[in-house]
TrEMBL record:
UniProt cross-references to InterPro entries, sorted A to Z: TM_pro_TauE-like
Transmembrane spans: 12-43, 55-73, 85-108, 114-133, 153-171, 183-207, 219-237, 257-275
Lineage: superkingdom: Bacteria
Cellular localization per UniProt: Cell membrane; Membrane
Family of this protein: Belongs to the 4-toluene sulfonate uptake permease (TSUP) (TC 2.A.102) family.
Main location: membrane
Keyword 4Fe-4S belongs to the record: no
GO annotation, cellular component aspect: plasma membrane
Keywords tagged on the record: Cell membrane, Membrane, Transmembrane, Transmembrane helix
Membrane-related topology note: Multi-pass membrane protein
Name of the protein in question: Probable membrane transporter protein
Length: 276
């Protein structure tokens, strides 16, 4: 690190802190951890710091999951205080999601990342259209399903989260709205589901990257950068409460459109990465 100009390091730190502020607001507003913002920012930071390209994405994803763990937890606590969390959903969905995180770690080692990026682009496009149209024609029901389907959704949430460095809020949030749950309650519940996902995911990436420790920058534990975590996590956690307030203040339709824009932008990000 000492080989980099101080001005360049200050600029990189400023970008990380600014992204952290945005991530916190997104976590509270949409019940997501903000990994779609964190991962590309950290990827560029690690590129400048000359982290080997073969390990750069893993380090960005692992650090992202670690960063959004406290942010997601604070988002859940704030929403729960307002009584917005749907009863009986967080524990079974979160437990199944942990299994999905573990499976995703194994699958990611063998399947090409393009497969999962394409799936996310399709998913984000379809759900964004539904949010923009504001229609109930795309519906899976009027009540949340039983334990079987919920277990499947949980595993899918964990699988997606572990592969792209997010808390899974975008997926679980959308599934709940497809089952007729109000967007505000879906956002609150999604933040709770994201807590075990991010904790287990961060530990998993620490273990997965341990054997590469000699090839990674200083102050990293496996695929988690303690520097990135130290700079971004506190800011993101602090701004989460503002996103929560905004979520409960905004009209239902505005929140739907905002969530649609978020999903659309995340889909574009993955599409661009596929093209390039």
């Amino acid at each position: 690190m000492s080989g980099y100009p101080l001005s360049q390091l200050i600029e990189l730190a400023a970008w990380i802190l600014a992204a952290g502020a945005l991530v916190g607001v997104l976590a509270g507003l949409f019940g997501i951890g903000g990994g779609a913002v964190i991962v590309p920012v950290l990827y560029e930071v690690f590129r400048v710091l000359e982290v080997p390209e073969a390990l750069r994405m893993q380090l960005a994803i692992g650090t992202s999951i670690a960063i959004i763990a406290p942010t997601t937890f604070r988002s859940y606590v704030n929403h729960n205080r307002r009584g917005a969390v749907i009863p009986g959903v967080v524990v079974p969905w979160g437990a199944a999601a942990v299994v999905g995180v573990l499976i995703g770690s194994v699958v990611a080692a063998f399947a090409p990342s393009a497969v999962f990026k394409i799936a996310f682009v399709i998913f984000a496009t379809l759900i964004s259209l539904r949010m923009f149209l504001g229609t109930d024609r795309w519906s899976l029901g009027t009540e949340l399903p039983g334990r079987g389907p919920m277990t499947i959704y949980g595993m899918m949430t964990g699988l997606i989260s572990s592969l792209v460095g997010v808390s899974g809020g975008a997926f679980s949030n959308t599934i709940m709205t497809l089952y007729g749950q109000p967007i505000h309650r879906a956002v609150a519940t999604s933040s709770g589901i994201g807590v075990p996902i991010t904790v287990v995911g961060a530990i998993g990436y620490m273990i997965a990257g341990w054997r590469y420790r000699d090839m990674l920058p200083p102050l990293t534990v496996g695929f988690v950068s303690l520097i990135g975590f130290a700079l971004m996590a506190p800011v993101a956690s602090w701004t989460t409460s503002y996103g929560v307030r905004l979520a409960h203040w905004l009209p239902h339709r505005v929140l739907e459109i905002g969530f649609g824009l978020f999903l659309g932008s995340a889909g574009v990000r993955f599409l661009v990465s596929l093209i390039n």
